[in-house]
Amino acid sequence: MAPADGAMGWDVSEGSPHRRALAASLMDLGRIGADYSTEDLLPYAELAAAAAKLDLDRIKAFDNSEDRFELAEHAAVVVLLLEPVLAVLRRLAQEDEARRRGVWARSTETAEPRPGRAPAADGEGTA
Question: What does the pLDDT average to over 98-120?
């Protein structure tokens, strides 16, 4: 059993390929010394549970459809095609959080104006 699914009380089949994928990913992280304990994973699992609820709520909106193909198509869109959008949203949120914490110095971003952006009048770029 993967650490997070047991601690979350999730009902996941023993043969789930996602269970094996999680275990393999955690082993890969462990090989490079980036170990994640169950305690480390729980906040991520809670966010994943909230996202799964949103996914299924979106799919449920089509549940009354007479067209089962339409329902299956919408489910595929929500489950598969939305994944890259969610990954990008996470990256944007990480960038925002890093800037809030001052992790990335704004001076490196403003050293040279980007194409199509003029430097501010005081010589500082804009964020």
Answer: 62
Helix then strand then coil, % of the chain, to nearest 5? 65, 0, 35
How do residues 25-75 score in pLDDT, each as one tens digit?
999 999 999 999 999 999 999 999 999 898 888 877 766 667 778 778 877
∠ CA 95-98-101, rounded to 5°: 150
Under 8 Å between Cβ of 38 and 3: yes
Q: Say whether 61 sits in a helix, a strand or coil.
A: coil
Angle between helix 68-76 and helix 38-60 axes, rounded to 10 deg = 150
- The encoded tokens of residue 102 equal 């001052």
